[in-house]
Design a protein that fits this description.
This protein is an alpha+beta fold. It is built from twelve helices and 15 strands.
């Protein structure tokens, strides 16, 4: 079992970010650093120990520049939402404190801790009541819940999914009703700071407008009069979110340092809003107009081979998303990635309006499916434009983005497999 989980978590997160950024070489990253003003040393000798978990980055400009560059690249290459520098610093701080504790025989304080009155004496085992209180918090606001993932990755707070706001705001009264205090004197102040941050965030969320009656299952920042005023409200909400996440993770890291925040200590709870992983599959399909109206979607492998009087043009590509889990989700955007090799990967986004009216956004209930379509000729024209610029489409895949920002991909399909269908589109 790894005795440095925080350091390994940071190293793994850096490796995953590098992969989502297109796996740039160390030489490429070093060149990016030299182009900064002033230049930043991002040499292989510095970065390799970070990515391999051998050493923990110092909290300085090289580390923040690295994550900023890789996050910008990952957003461009794979549309991976940014976590933001504060989240990366939190992970770095946890790894650094872990390293310090190991170097000093375990006496260094955990992130966010108040200096201990016990000094270097061996800490007693946590009180049973502290473990119970920690368990109640972690069941209400699980560290791996969708609520936390969305808040951490969201670039703005103009719209917040109800799955997120409900999880956060429902936790507040339950935590306020829990009048037991921690026996450990270092945990109680951290818990109170977390509650204060949660109250401030819920105040912002409760001031938003529920527009679920209009379709999207979200809260939306109201329009107070001017764009400037609305942007101010967004900044205010983002500040409350960032402060809450900071104190929340300080408390969770303290609990982890006491050995009462590991998964084995958190009893399983039934699936509910804001917790548990999403299980969404995405598939690219071919669509034919039916003689009596409507669109029939068929697997790509039979595209171009269909010959029936029941089918005709116009022709479509369809993206079907299926929810194989118990948690409902909103699909905000679907489209097709076009990989031309090298550095080029172009997305084709489906329109909000389909042949039968509004098709995006759409809600997927538990164990349900849904789809959106786009005129096949438009993708054909995209292929043609790429060819005119000297590129060659090599493969395509469907994708769907949830309202929370989470991205789901289908399997890559060789571009030549689409040509029979595209030939039908342009010849009929």
């Amino acid at each position: 079992m790894d005795d440095r989980p925080a350091a390994e978590h940071l190293a793994r997160a850096l490796r995953e970010l590098k992969a989502k950024a297109g796996s740039p070489s160390y030489d490429t990253i070093a060149a990016w650093g030299q182009r900064q003003n002033p230049a930043v040393n991002l040499s292989k000798s510095k970065l390799s120990p970070w990515f391999n978990g051998i050493s923990v980055p110092a909290d300085g400009r090289p580390f923040t520049t690295l994550v900023e560059l890789l996050e910008a690249r990952a957003l461009q290459k794979s549309r991976t939402p940014k976590r933001g520098v504060p989240a990366w610093r939190t992970m770095r701080d946890a790894a650094d404190q872990e390293r310090r504790r190991a170097a000093s025989g375990g006496s260094a304080p955990a992130p966010g801790a108040i200096p201990s009155a016990r000094g270097a004496a061996e800490a007693p085992p946590p009180a049973a009541g502290d473990a119970d209180k920690a368990g109640r918090l972690l069941r209400l606001l699980p560290p791996d819940g969708l609520w936390q993932s969305w808040l951490r990755k969201a670039e703005t707070m103009f719209r917040v999914p109800l799955d997120v706001s409900n999880a956060v705001c429902d936790a507040l009264p339950a935590l306020e009703d829990d009048q037991f205090t921690y026996v450990d004197p270092e945990l109680q102040p951290a818990h109170e700071a977390m509650l204060a941050g949660l109250r401030a965030l819920c105040l912002e969320l409760n001031g938003m407008t529920d527009i679920s009656d209009e379709g999207p299952q979200v809260l939306e920042i109201s329009h107070p009069g001017t764009a400037v005023e609305r942007n101010d409200l967004n900044r205010q909400a983002c500040t409350a979110r960032d402060r809450f996440l900071s104190v929340y993770w300080q408390l969770v890291n303290l609990l982890n340092g006491r050995g009462i925040a590991s998964p084995k200590d958190i009893p399983e709870s039934p699936p509910g809003l804001g917790s548990g992983p999403l299980d969404i599959t995405v598939e690219l399909q071919a669509g034919y107009t039916m003689a009596h109206g409507g669109v029939a979607l068929l697997p790509i492998e039979v595209a171009g081979k269909v010959s029936s009087e029941a089918f005709s043009g116009p022709y479509f590509f369809g993206v079907r998303a299926a929810n194989r889990g118990p948690i409902g989700v909103q699909i905000a955007t679907v489209g097709i990635d076009i990989d031309c090799g090298g550095e080029i990967q172009l997305p084709y986004l489906f329109p909000a309006l389909g042949p039968d009216g509004k098709q995006l956004e759409f809600d997927l209930g538990s164990y349900a499916g849904g789809h959106a379509v786009a005129n096949a000729a438009e993708l054909g024209h995209s292929f043609r434009m790429i060819a005119e610029k000297g590129g060659t489409p090599q493969r395509v895949r469907a994708f769907a983005r949830a309202g929370s920002g989470t991205l789901f991909h289908g399997s890559w399909i060789p571009a030549p497999d689409l040509l029979p269908f595209l030939t039908t589109v342009f010849t009929e």
